[in-house]
Amino acid sequence: MLIRSLQDEGVDLVFGYPGGSALHIYDALFRQDSVKHVLVRHEQAATHAADAYARATGNVGTVLVTSGPGATNAITGIATAYMDSIPMVVISGQVPSSKIGEDAFQETDMVGVSRPIVKHSFLVKEAKDIPETIKKAYYIASTGRPGPVVVDVPKDITDPNFTFEYHYPEKVKIRSYTPAGRGHSGQIKKAVQLLLGAKRPVIYAGGGVILGNASAQLTQLTKLLNYPITNTLMGLGCYPGSDKQFIGMLGMHGTFEANTAMHHSDVILAVGARFDDRVTNTVEKFCPTAKIIHIDIDPASISKTVAADIPIVGAVDLVLNEMLDLLKQGDITPDEAALAEWWRQINEWRDRHGLYTQNRFDNSSEMIKPQEVVQALYEVTKGDAYITSDVGQHQMFAAQYYRFDKPRRWINSGGLGTMGFGLPAAMGAQMADRDAVVACVTGEGSIQMCIQELSTCTQYKLPIKIICINNQALGMVKQWQDMNYDSRYSEILYEDSLPDFIKLAESYGHVGIKVTKREELKEKMQECFAMKDKVVFMDIYVDPSEHVYPMLIAPNGSMRDMWLSKTERT
Amino acid sequence: MTKRRIISLLMENSPGALSRVVGLFSQRGYNIETLTVAPTEDETLSRLTVTTMGDGHTIEQITKNLNKLVDVVKLVDLTEGAHIERELMMIKVKASGAQRAEVKRCVDIFRGQIIDVTSTVYTMQITGTSDKLDSFISAIGETAVLEVVRTGVSGISRGEKVLSL
After folding, report:
1. Residue A176 in contact with partner chain B when CB distance is under 8 A
2. Which domains does chain B have, with CATH numbers?
3. CATH classification of A370-548 is 3.40.50.970, yes or no?
4. Which residues of A touch B23 (CB under 8 A)?
5. pLDDT at A175
6. What is the pTM of this model?
7. Cα A457 to chain center, whole Å?
8. How confident is residue A330, by pLDDT bands cut at 50, 70 and 90?
9. CB-hemisphere CA count at 13 Å for A521?
10. Yes or no, beta carbons of A176 and B61 under 8 Å apart
11. Is A155 a catalytic residue?
12. Tell me, what's the pLDDT at A331?
């Protein structure tokens, strides 16, 4: 019944791992072929893969795990999806109803354990409730501000000997759940007026634009106004990264021009972004002269850390459509003279310290710089690959130097910062688009957190390219230890214990390429991507002393206070 | 400015709903002063009343996040308008000799009732605002008090205004 409900929901792909409490479900899965299953090597990977599948396609990702350790192993992945508002349904087997509460074998209170990191959860009490519960789970996961939903199913509920009349509901209505739709017209009108009166505007767009499929509307609006636009880490790709109006990512490792423009702006249009602490720096010093328009589907995100002058609760695509209509019919136009002066100023910032006007890192040393790896990746893949990443310096370099022109191409754990995300996420993206080029930018630290998935890649022929930026240390921690702890390197080194990644990759039937010299970087990168049907593990040795810049100065700094290099600051 | 607020809500009378509400408070670092919950005349719904302290911004976040919970159907901050609040207290005090008359008088003043008696102990019930219950305890003298049990605050809007579906 559960599998039939998934079929009727239109689910065609499930990532999972079987076990005792899920045996009935797995048997049903075996006896059909419309729902495909990917067997991972660890449940955490199942959740990351389903999460990335959702990020790449916009559909809900589905996970199937067993009770106890199966369920708890999924927790990190659920938390990752929760922090980034990713639609996902996790079906977990549970011990039989009669045993719940008895500390039965492989029993964990999954609904309780997952409570703070799910949008909602269900414990199915009766078999006849399965279809409606599944329908509700997918409805809640995918509407409003999306998020993960857990459905915990005791083993007796899925007993095939128990039969009942099956009916899959067309629609569900939940009286206590009404996701926001259109924004308030009066507020939208006020927002447009404020926006048009701006002298130093900035559009600040986040992951909500991608989740709400509003990239086209946002791009149109931005072009129409000719305003500068910056993206959050989660928003990269929602506006073309190579366009001249794009001033780069903002926040802790954002560009000089984006952070400085935010600080000096007079009007900020925030769209699907949540003023995260990695963006704002010290909240009290955040953009002191700016009036803020904030569009978000989640009322609780508005005025949470930074008060909005014009809050608009609504689906971003609908709100932006309404704004576009007003802009097109309106007779007020932006203040051209002020805008020209603003652009002159921004371009001057760009020339002075921008990441794209010239190399801001020292590439005179013998060792390859991590930034060069991402630049080479960008060139070889022509900026058109799905890039997943793990967490650390490599993630920031990828975000800075890979300029995403399309939404849903940049897949990373922004909110939770989950190391180990990259490889299983690449599997999810590759499953979503079997012909696409998928690369996982990672480090020698992160990759080892889910390295077992190299085996899954073999089984399902997922030709992922692993770009391991190997600096022989936990680089981001090291950077903080350099900057704040007088370079006391506490527990970030492996003391010659790193595996030979080339041999490791080969043992799974993959190809390994080691790169240590700058002059061979591009050629090897091309070689890597020429092997279209192979997993290739590129182990690229880079300068271990490199830091990520710019970097906002904390604590007590504003957005214009940045380190620009190890010695230079604003 | 930090103020005491009474938030009253209707939620699905389903397992896990209460833990989601309570969990939200601890998860986001909000405090709960009192909490009462019971089913309503519509058995699919429970009414929950929580008193909490916070400034305007915190209270706004609390109400927004409570509203976001899928199990929460409707919510009102009673302290935003005219409202009536009551709490029930049962209190057991030492009462022997001359004290007995004094305690009895005190209960009458506070319009409470003695609901159980032994030769040395009075058990009384008092209803009213939380302040009134506090005052009763200090009037009776804390040294005499053996046990106190309070239900937490329940509240309802004055006039026509109702919290219903």
Report:
1. yes
2. 3-81 (3.30.70.260), 84-154 (3.30.70.1150)
3. yes
4. 115-116
5. 93
6. 0.95
7. 21
8. confident
9. 24
10. no
11. yes
12. 76
